[in-house]
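worker-3 :: picked Glycosyltransferase subfamily 4-like N-terminal domain-containing protein
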Amino acid sequence: MNIAMVVYSHYSRDARVRKYAEILAENKHSVDIICLKENYNPRSKNIRLVFYPVERRRYNKIWYLIEYLLFFFFALINLAVRSINIKYQIIHVHNMPDFLVFTAAFPKLTGSKIILDMHDPMPELYLSKYKVNNSDFILNLIRFSEKFALNFADIVITANFNFKKIFIKRYPGIRKKISVIQNFPDEKIFIPEKKSVQEDNFILMYMGTIEERYELFPAIEAIPKLILKIPELKFNIIPKIKTEGNYYRKLKKLISDLNLDYHVRILPPLPVEGIAREIKNSDIGIILLKKDIFTENIVPVKLLEFVFMEKPVIATKTKALSGIFPPGSLHFLNENSSGEFISAVTKLYNDKNLANNLANTAKKYFKTFNWKTESGIYLKLIAYFNPEVFSASQSPQLK
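worker-3 :: tokens ->
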């Protein structure tokens, strides 16, 4: 089948989108992906990238809207034009924003089926980011967009069961067409390996979006005291995009003010393969979350990658994470204070058996759940839209 995807991110760094595309390509499907421009070539000839030429930046709310609208029209026109020559059986659209699903309007009119992949619930994310009240105009616009986007799609996918509950509570009518495909690491890329013998530093690692809801300030403020106890300590930070926002600039200033440029290293954004390499050479994964309506329900893909690579993780104790990982699997923090962070790092540094036990216990999660099982669910959804495999009277098995 011919399948198109639309995603407002860089293909090489978006593990979820890459896993979908690569499993489709392995199964002889042809995949065109409209995404952000970068210097990267997919591993499979069955995957073609259509680049949006404008660099992504984090500024204010107005800029977000402008960015989204510009990309929307780029994808809308591209899909319409490409659909004249290519019959796409499926258009798989990834939020954010939710209204990107309407870029598939013309293909839908010509018979394409639409999958909407809700990576995150946008109203909760907006509330987390901007701390507005329920009457906020943009918040209500996001809710309006979400409702129509979900109704427009033939099938909805989301990233965890908490998100599924949120969507069904808001829109009970989508219960029969929503499925969960969890963000488990690709076993072909994230291969647990021993740390390189050339790397003799003790490395903490964070990768991903640099925003206030991912509380890195307490960790940075703890570094001066930690290096007195652990002189070889380094903290590697890998941002998601080159031009992160105001919180990123404040973070860099804090690092400079504390004279930590030697111990805190901000690396450039990396493709998934580069992330796996950096995790291999790290000692502890860091996942700090500012608890709110959004972060209480997320399961960060980067946490799952740390766990899969058998690295101990220091993480904020949230409803979602404590519901998945039992005591003795992650080193949970009740508060994201510098003191609690110092205690956690020191404890894992001094007690290698504890660190190994945490990593091994957390890894047991993947005995039941893994990308192989999740990719099978996805392929069944894809097969449902292939008339040679399924009859029109059948429905996909959703979970």
